[in-house]
UniProtKB/TrEMBL annotation:
Coiled coil: none annotated. It comes from Paracoccus nototheniae. SUPFAM superfamilies: P-loop containing nucleoside triphosphate hydrolases. This is Branched-chain amino acid ABC transporter ATP-binding protein/permease. The chain crosses the membrane at residues 12-33, 39-58, 70-88, 94-116, 123-143, 163-185, 215-240, 252-275, 287-308. It is found in: Cell membrane. It is a multi-pass membrane protein. Its main location: membrane. Keywords: ATP-binding, Cell membrane, Membrane, Nucleotide-binding, Transmembrane, Transmembrane helix, Transport. It comes from the Bacteria.
Length: 597
């Protein structure tokens, strides 16, 4: 059995065993707990499910969200409002549940659309989600008798089942949703979420639709939170503005941080423990318990920034050490069909730039740049520092970057397309400084590069990564194919450069933008890269645009050279023509023609 299949089977087995043990615990707990504690735990279990969604958003993707309480409140008020003003029964309950989930999904989609547009900062997203519970609470206050205003709604008809049944419902809901989330974060798609958290820009330039993934994840989290809120309201028979408020949203974040952000089970257990303890402390020390929780939170953030879960896990592993066989990871497979280097069907040039300009306020960085990149050609771009070379790369690969002019990829104008859409048109880009994912393995990075083409499994790991032959050749030449389970932070600079180039090729571009691909490499490594680039242009028909400050390297591999000076094209021709040009010599008198920016 392939190693990946074996690990998938083990993961599913572990999830099933954990789920069954959790359900068994939930089934037996009401028989040993007293009535008071059972009552408290039912509410706590619904809240813990919301904390689990906070950990997915914050811990896995890096979205610091204050808005999950709003979605929890939407589900709760859907229950309270329908049961109070319209009717009660199975049909009404189903309608209220559906309405709550639907409104939560719509609000989450609108919030995500506002918060996760291309180029938005994480701080902006946090502010948007922070405003959400504030706005919703004000709507509740202004609802008068319909929403109960500041007093909320209570005494509405509901299902007065035995506490044992409600405990089973709340516990079962938490166990099932947490199991699904556990499988999600350990799947190929979970690696995509980690990649977005670590290096969102690199994800976008690999063709991963970052904003869409964030929005869909927020919608899914909102639906879970709304379902939890509906259950909470149906059990407690009370809804109040506090259920949708900013304070509860902040408590979700505190519980997540204390339990261990990114550990999933840690925040869930922390929510259960802290909320249950708070119920006891609020009676024993009504004026001090919130202060105590706050002090504990500050101490943990200062001394244990990763929360308690990593410490408990490390202790458990020390007490019960396990011998693990080295994992082999995914297999590398050559793609039977590849679009690498394939542009338009006719003789349309892969890259056409006309009258491109870029202005930052009063600073004109690029002026009236017009150039064409052809298939099977390697076009070098050189110029002094500040000439606008890297800015030109950004304008080609991101439609929102340029101020004026047009950029066409394989005959299609990029318009204002985000980077992931430009990648889909056929552009692959490397960066001046290697841009990878430190905590992910080589095979994970290659899988990410294939996300646009092959997708990623939601609840399992793929057995193989399908790559075009040139990418495989680079991996074999650098020895990376023998270290697929190595985390990228442990690689040498040369290996990181090779991996990034393989990732760009994995996206199957027809236009490659390389920003100083040999920076920091030895002479032997530069020669190897030069041979690879020459083969990519000649054998696979790629249009390669290269920024490089090593003029000898440019002279050896380039078909033509463009000289940028003060944001405009000074000259275009062969390297010999450029170097011998009196115009270039007059501009760069006493200096070597460089391309470092």
């Amino acid at each position: 059995m392939p190693d990946t299949s074996f690990r998938n089977l083990n993961r599913l087995r572990a999830a099933l065993i954990g789920c069954l043990l959790g359900l068994a615990l939930v089934a037996l707990a009401p028989f040993v707990l007293d009535t008071y504690l059972t009552n408290i735990l039912i509410r706590t279990l619904f809240l813990a499910a919301v904390v689990m969604t906070v950990d997915i958003l914050w811990g896995s993707v890096g979205i610091l969200t204050f808005g999950q309480s709003a979605f929890f409140g939407i589900g709760a008020y859907a229950c309270g409002l329908i049961f109070t003003h319209y009717g009660f029964g199975p049909g009404w309950a189903l309608a209220a549940f559906t309405i709550g989930l639907g409104i939560a999904a719509i609000v989450a989609a609108a919030t995500g659309w506002l918060a996760f547009f291309h180029g938005s900062s994480p701080l902006y997203a946090s502010i948007i989600t922070l405003a959400l519970p504030v706005v919703l609470t004000q709507l509740i206050f202004s609802g008068g008798n319909f929403t109960g205003s500041s007093s909320g709604l209570s005494g509405f008809p509901t299902y007065y089942w035995d506490l044992m049944i409600w405990f089973w419902i709340a516990g079962g809901f938490l166990i099932l949703t947490t199991t699904a989330a556990w499988l999600l974060v350990r799947s190929d798609f979970g690696r995509v979420l980690v990649a977005i958290r670590e290096n969102e820009e690199r994800c976008a330039y690999l063709g991963i639709p970052v904003s869409r993934i964030k929005i869909m994840l927020m919608i899914a989290s909102a639906v879970v939170a709304s379902a939890a809120g509906f259950g909470y309201a149906a059990f407690s028979n009370v809804v109040a503005p506090e259920l949708a408020g900013f304070q509860l949203g902040t408590e979700f974040l505190i519980w997540t941080a204390l339990g261990g952000r990114g550990t999933l089970l840690g925040p869930v257990l922390a929510a259960i423990g802290i909320d249950t303890m708070s119920a006891w402390l609020s009676g024993a020390m009504p004026f001090l318990w919130k202060l105590l929780i706050g002090v504990v939170f500050v101490v943990v953030i200062v001394l244990l920034p990763r929360g308690f879960a990593p410490i408990v896990t490390a202790l458990f592993q020390r007490l019960l050490p396990r011998q693990k066989a080295p994992a082999q990871g995914r297999r590398l497979v050559a793609a039977e069909q590849s679009r690498l280097g394939q542009g338009a069907d006719d003789d349309t040039p892969p890259l056409v730039i006309e009258h491109l300009s870029r202005r930052y306020g009063s600073l004109q960085v690029l002026r009236d740049v017009t150039m064409t990149g052809r298939a099977s050609h390697l076009l070098g771009i050189i110029g002094p520092n500040g000439a606008g070379k890297t800015t030109l790369m950004r304008c080609i690969s991101d439609g929102s970057e340029r101020t004026g002019g047009t950029v066409r990829i394989n005959g299609t104008e990029i318009g204002r397309c985000a980077p992931h859409k430009v990648v889909a048109l056929g552009v692959g880009r490397s960066f001046q400084n290697t841009s990878l994912f430190d905590t992910l393995t080589i095979s994970d990075c290659l899988m990410l590069a294939r996300y646009r083409i092959d997708g990623a499994s939601l609840f399992s790991n793929g057995e193989a990564v399908t790559l075009p032959q040139p990418a495989l050749d680079i991996l074999r030449a650098t020895g990376l194919d023998q270290r697929l389970q190595e985390e990228t932070r442990n690689l040498s600079h040369g290996m990181k450069r090779g991996l990034e180039l393989a990732m760009v090729l994995a996206t199957e571009p027809s236009v490659m933008l390389l920003d100083e691909p040999t920076a920091g490499l030895t002479k032997a490594e530069r020669m190897a890269i030069g041979k690879i680039l020459g083969r990519l242009a000649q054998d696979y028909g790629l249009c390669i645009i290269l920024i490089e400050h090593d003029l000898d390297f440019v002279r050896e591999i380039s078909d033509r050279v463009v000289v940028l000076h003060q944001g405009a094209i000074l000259m275009e021709g062969t390297v010999d023509e450029v170097v011998s040009s009196e115009l270039v010599q007059s501009v760069y008198a006493g200096h070597h023609v460089e391309a470092a920016e």
